[in-house]
Write a structure and sequence with these properties.
Helices cover 68% and strands 6% of the residues. It is mainly α.
């Protein structure tokens, strides 16, 4: 009996620690949908958070998702559509009437509304914008006028700004009186002059602790970390990470306050940029999970075709030594090892360099040092694996000479892997190319060509 109670308590504790929608919950909800049990489905959707509802829609198939939207779309929290990925969100919203999408956007804060509408087809965008109120329409059109992936696109236009001559007491009274018109969440009050220029910021905790007769300008921090509206969102994320910000004002070219960026939006940017870089290194897009088969196939075909061209270059190098390979069959068995080890070692250095560039840890002051370090690491690993593969090869094929040849090729290729693995992203970054996209292709080509050429070339010299 005691054991049953403990088991039940453990299960309860486990349930309390579960922060995501379980597969069992998803299946039971979809079963209720299939059996047309509307009361159960409505009860589940009312109980779920926006994030969990989005998770349910993401994991349902297209038909089930469309049925939920058609039957219960009007009852869904508008924030559900901000929790979806861009591709799935776009596919879902573009199957809804423009008026329904306009109603969703009207109920969201300006940054979330813009995040939704900017993913949609331009013609559908305009149809939705025409159905918005004048105030919301102006905010959306202003947001769309900023460059893509800029601070202007990321910012929230609902912001709390107070004159510098106000007192703490007047500010608190204002916040209480205007509670319905304030942003849902805010962390700082921005101090402005009559021309709306930023003069500083006051964290909420300073307002709470201040005396009512204290002037706002006396308790404000002067450095408000004002962000230009055209700043790239990666730069914004770097600024938040470096200075441990929770919010920052966005200003126009004249330094006037336009809006605010908060930490929750920056977390999304960091997650989005990290995922984008990882996917680009493999030649896939963020929306591939939900994109149509032919569209996904076409996108990946271009990347694979580029890889085919680089593989042909390595094959051309091998063809130069076809006579050598015919005479020494062991070379055909061993040569993939050299190229594979070089590619993997180079990818390690490349990953470190791409991440360092993305986080601004790699700049002109330490580039040479980092490249040199990765080259030394490649050399040391080359020596270590040269000994291992050399001994194994010598024993396997009863040929000490062949063991020395593969050892020498291993050292050469891992040195090259470390050098170019760190250098290629830096070179691409300085030429304006995206290191996450192109680095892998160049690196693989170099390590394959050098690996095959070194191994087969040494074999041709010393064994024939």
């Amino acid at each position: 009996m005691t054991e049953d109670v403990n088991t039940s308590q453990d299960q309860k504790n486990q349930d309390e620690l579960t922060f995501t929608l379980s597969d069992e919950d998803i299946r039971s909800t979809l079963d209720a949908l299939h059996s047309e049990d509307a009361d159960t489905v409505c009860a589940v959707l009312d109980e779920l958070s926006p994030a969990d509802t989005a998770d349910l829609l993401c994991k349902a198939n297209n038909d089930d998702r469309q049925e939920i939207i058609n039957m219960y779309g009007d009852t869904l929290n508008p924030e559900v559509f901000t929790e979806m990925g861009p591709e799935l969100g776009r596919n879902t919203l573009e199957q809804m009437p423009a008026q329904q999408v306009a109603s969703i956007i009207a109920d969201l804060e300006s940054d979330d509304a813009l995040e939704i509408i900017e993913t949609l087809d331009e013609e559908f965008q305009q149809e939705i914008i025409r159905k918005l109120s004048a105030k919301t329409r102006a905010a959306v059109e202003e947001g769309l006028s900023f460059p893509e992936d800029s601070a202007g696109r990321l910012m929230q236009r609902e912001v709390v700004a107070v004159p510098q001559f106000w007192t703490v007491g007047k500010t608190i009274d204002y916040l209480r009186a205007a509670s319905d018109g304030l942003p849902e969440d805010f962390f700082d009050l921005f101090v402005i002059d009559p021309s709306y220029h930023i003069k500083g910021h006051v964290p909420l905790n300073r307002i709470v602790r201040g005396q009512r007769d204290e002037k706002i300008e006396d308790i404000a921090f002067e450095n408000a970390h004002a962000i230009p509206a055209d700043m790239d969102q990666e730069e914004v994320a770097h600024l938040f990470r470096r200075d441990n910000l929770v919010s920052a004002p966005v200003v126009d070219d004249d330094g006037r306050l336009l809006g605010v960026i908060t930490i929750d939006d920056v977390i999304d940017v960091i997650d989005e940029e990290a995922a984008e870089d990882i996917l680009k290194m493999a030649g896939v897009d963020q929306g591939d999970l939900y994109r149509a088969i032919w569209s996904t196939t076409g996108t990946r075909f271009r990347w694979l075709f580029l890889n085919l061209l680089t593989a042909l270059l390595a094959s051309v190098v091998i063809s130069f030594f076809d006579a050598t390979i015919q005479q020494i069959v062991a070379l055909a068995v061993l040569m993939p090892i050299v190229a594979s080890m070089g590619g993997n070692a180079g990818t390690q250095a490349l990953t470190v360099a791409v991440r360092a560039l993305a986080t601004k840890e790699l700049s002109g002051t330490n580039t040479a040092r980092i490249i040199w370090k990765e080259t030394i690491v490649g050399s040391l690993n080359g020596i270590a694996f040269a000994i291992i593969t050399g001994v194994i090869t010598a024993l396997w094929f009863a040929s000490p000479v062949l063991g020395l040849i593969i050892a020498a090729a291993m050292v050469i290729n891992l040195i090259v892997a470390g050098l170019f693995g760190a250098a290629i992203p830096v070179i691409l970054d300085r030429t304006g190319a995206d290191p996450a996209v192109a680095s892998t292709v160049f690196l693989t080509t170099i390590t394959d060509v050098v690996g095959f050429f070194a191994f087969l070339g040494l074999a041709a010299i010393f064994m024939l």
